[in-house]
Amino acid sequence: MEDGDSLGASLFIRHLKATKPLLYEKATANSMLIVVPTFRSYSEVDLPNFQFETYLMRPSPHQPGVLVTLNSKSLLCQNQVLETQKGFDEVRSIAILGEESCYNRDLKSYTVFWVDKLLEGQATPQPKNAFDWLFEDRNSAEENEAFIKMFPQNAPAVERADAECVKFNNNYALVKGYLSHARDRLKGISDRLRRTILTCNELLVSCTSNPRHMAVLSEATDSYIMSKVEPRLLEGLRAIFVEEDAKLNDALKQFQ
User: Fold this and answer.
1) How far is it, in rounded angstroms, from Cα 109 to Cα 105?
2) Burial class (CB in 10 A: 0-12, 13-18, 19+), 79
3) For residues 133 and 23, what is the distance between their CA atoms, to the nearest angstrom?
4) In whole angstroms, what is the distance from residue 125 CA to residue 187 CA?
5) Which of 100, 93, 143 is nearest to 10 (CA)?
6) Which pTM was predicted?
């Protein structure tokens, strides 16, 4: 991803580029790993106190699995977890929520890890459940569509999903015996939409650390995709479900 999409929406990255542009240029030009805490893990008032050198790192040339920061601290990276080691005041385990490949203005690639908390120090407490309103249960396709589209950075992913739905509607005929194929195709479109959203939306990436939030996002993408299926195909799909359920019930009765 070109620098400026999900990274541009990050307070962390914007502050780094604004206050330490040479440090940012050095990190991206040398393909260093940038570790970015999700927005919910800190407050904007914390940014002036950040030691950004701690969040810029590269693999140790001598110790496999160890990352060394620009200010010579070390972390162990394994099983999607960073564990602080030498140079840190305390041992802390930090979950890696996502990984993203980016490019600077000279098309040099570098990697970003989105993580669930700060590597060191304490963040200013945010209001309890500050983002829970985003993950309230939604009872209609319209509400789920509004949720998916409320974030401008989701637009490219939504456009791709819409195009896939148009292709499905134009080229697919429901045939008995192929229910699972239709279901899998639609589920695949929904899954791709959700995965893409989670790579470009720093706030929603926090869903992966909360099962309920992830369930709400999954329900929203499933609902959105199903709402794009042509009514005639949707009715046919429902009819096959009803018939399959009836056959299953008849089969179960034989064992009662």
Assistant:
1) 10
2) exposed
3) 37
4) 38
5) 100
6) 0.50
Q: Closest by alpha carbon to 1, among 99, 138, 82, 114?
A: 99
Task: Give tens-digit pLDDT for 28-72.
Answer: 899 999 998 876 667 666 777 788 999 999 999 989 999 999 999
CB 145 within 8 A of CB 65: no
- Give, for 101, the enclosing helix (H) or strand (E): strand 93-103
CB 64 within 8 A of CB 140: no
Token code pair at residue 125: 């407490």
Rounded CA gap, 22 and 141, in Å? 47
Of the two residues 251 and 14, the one the predictor is more confident about is 14
Express as a percent the part of the chain with pLDDT over 90.
26
Distance CA 225, CA 161 (A): 8
Find the distance separating the first CA and the last CA of the chain, reported in whole Å: 57
In total, the chain counts a number of residues equal to: 256
Query: In angstroms, rounded to a whole number, what is the distance separating the alpha carbons of residues 19 and 92?
Result: 27
Q: Is 1 helix (H, G, I), strand (E, B) or coil?
A: coil
Note the pLDDT tens digit of each residue in 159-191: 999 999 999 888 876 666 666 677 788 889 999
